[in-house]
Amino acid sequence: MSSFRPAPLTGIRVLDLTRVLAGPWCTQNLADLGAEVIKIERPGSGDDTRGWGPPYVKDAQGQDTTEAAYYASANRNKYSVAVDISSQKGADLVRELAKQSDILVENFKVGGLAKYGLDYESIKAINPRLIYCSITGFGQNGPYASRPGYDFMIQGMGGLMSITGERDDLPGGGPQKAGVAVADLMTGMYSTVGILAALHERGRSGLGQHIDMALLDCQVAMLANQNQNFFTSGVAPQRAGNAHQNLVPYQVFAAADGHLIVAVGNDGQFRAYCGVIGRPELAEDARFKTNSNRVINRDLLVPMLVDVMKTQARDHWLEQLERVGVPAGPINTIDQVYENPQVKAREMLRHLPHKSAGTAPVGASPLRFSGSPVQYRHAAPLLGEHTEQVLRERLGLSEDEIRNLTR
After folding, report:
1. What's the CA gap between 135 and 110, in Å, rounded?
2. What is the pLDDT at residue 2?
3. Which of 17, 266, 279, 301 is the most exposed place for a label (fewest CB within 10 A)?
4. Based on the domain organization, do 24 and 63 belong to the same domain?
5. Where would one find the signal peptide in this protein (predicted)?
6. How far apart are CA 46 and CA 148, in angstroms?
7. Which run of H or of E encompasses 399?
8. For residue 115, how far is the Cα from the chain centroid?
9. Would you name the residues annotated as active-site residues?
């Protein structure tokens, strides 16, 4: 008999009116934590990302299904209900589900749900305990509130692209976006945190509240130490390629047969690093002995290190640096990531039941609980896969009523 307890959010119901990535990433987190997440989708087309392929999830014979990999990445463990909220009956059904829900997450444009009676004030009137999270590009107020917001433009507008990419004075310099939609993903994570905090607060007050999440806010907030560098110095940080603004050496180096990352985080590690590369005198040089001096004298030190690192193979450096406790690692392609023994040991790839594919691969949640683990119930659903089930079990509709609605 299992000693595990139910997942942390078991018994919590989430009404998911989101699409694309920021909102679905948030609600997938909640689903992984055990919440029942009912995803409302447009009949016929569903979430926009259902069409964002190829690639598509493959069936047991290796043939493409109709399910885009992009959609599958952010919608596991959810129930899909196809309802036209622009119709009176459809909006009524969603309101009935909202009455029974603990959390509602939506990413319609500001004011876009009011005409259907699905805005916060309307839903609050029928369910004052509901936690209602709105995710938009720019938030519910301010001069940009009515504008659409997409991750790429937010990465640019929010400053990330000004510090991402090679230095402007080097070949290939210029603004560069991140390889995944980090503004969307971070907004989904911040939204998850906000919802869980509001859920805890509701335990004291008995009341829900409106959470106003903006991609731009989250992008600006996640600049982290770069924000503080600017606040402290008055100088806007610039692109530094694979180098670090505040640590040296902390960058990519070319070895004789490839590349590796060396991430020296303190002066002790620098001394150990200098010993490995056969240049112990550098660690005693006043220009390089402390990190602050290394940052100041970066342009003197780094070229010397570059020359030394080219003299040995990548794996030689990795083995030697690991031996003395200097953080270093390879630059893996994604297929190499999933062959990594640590990634395998942490079970970061799972295979879940899927109605048309049989099973589908998914990237696992990084959350690990000793007593109430993350749940992996099923892969991302087909469009409307659970419509009849939810209408029957949650709203008590009869088979005749469901047939009439379908018709």
Report:
1. 9
2. 59
3. 266
4. yes
5. none
6. 19
7. helix 399-406
8. 31
9. 184
Is the domain of 213 the same as that of 138?
yes
Residue 6 has a pLDDT of 93
Asked whether the beta carbons of 226 and 146 are under 8 A apart, the reply is no
Q: In what order do the strands lie in the sheet with 250-254?
A: 250-254, 259-263, 328-330
Tokens of 383: 């469009």
Domain identity same for 211 and 162: yes
Burial class (CB in 10 A: 0-12, 13-18, 19+), 402: middle
Identify the domain containing residue 150 by its residue range. 13-222+347-406
What pLDDT, on a 0 to 100 scale, did the predictor assign at position 289?
96
Q: Which of the residues in the chain have pLDDT under 70? A: 1-2
Reference 365, options 7, 53, 11, 17; nearest CA is: 7
Report H helices in 266-386: 267-276, 291-296, 298-309, 314-323, 334-337, 341-345
- Distance of alpha carbon 275 from alpha carbon 325, whole angstroms: 12
Helices (H) and strands (E) in the chain, counts: 16, 13
Burial 262-296 (b: 16+ CB within 10 A, else e): bebeebebbbbbbebbeeeebbeeeebeebebbee
